[in-house]
Input
Amino acid sequence: MFCLGSETLKIVGVAGFKNAGKTTLVVELIKELRQRGVRVATIKHAHHDFDIDHPGKDSYQHRAAGAEEVIVASSRRWAQIRELGTEDEPPFDALLARLGEVDLVLVEGYKHGTHPKLELRRAGYDHSELANDDPAIVAIVADYAIADAPVPVLPRDNVPAIVDFVLQRG
Output
C-alpha cells in the first residue's frame, strides 16, 4: 500500500536494469491479474525522449504545429499528451493522482522510488543488486537460485505465485 494524500493505493513496481525483462514480466502480471478480476493500471518510466504519437496522425500534426497539450478521445479510450518544454518531469505522486479507480497499480521503472518494488534479476546479467540497499524492495523475482537474499525470492517462471505474493501483501 502507498499513501497518496488521503487515499491508499495498492502499488507494486518492477525494478531492474536494462534487458532484465521488466516489460515482459509486467505484461504477464497484467494478464494474470485481469484473469483474476483485478483492475490494473500501469505507469511506465522512460529515461529518454519518447513518443506515443506518430507522423501522419492528426494529433501528431497538432503537436508539431505547437499545441502544448493534445487530447485524443473516442468512445473506447482517450489519451492526453502534454509537452513539458522547460518544466520538470512530474513527480511520481502527481502521476498516480491522474489515474482512475483501479485495484492495483503496476509501475515499470522508477527504480529509486519509495513505492514497494519487485527486483527482477536474470542469470547471465552482471548488474548491481538492488535489494541489499533499497528497503522498498519487497521481493526478488529471479530465474536462478539466490542464497541469503534479504527478501523473499520468487521464481520468474511462476507468474501465478508472483501475483499471489503481490495480492497478499495487502
Observations:
- Residues 2-50+88-168 form a domain with the Rossmann fold fold (CATH 3.40.50.300).
- Strands lie at 2-4, 7-9, 11-15, 40-44, 69-73, 78-82, 104-108, 117-121, 137-142, 153-155.
- The first strand starts at residue 2 and ends at 4.
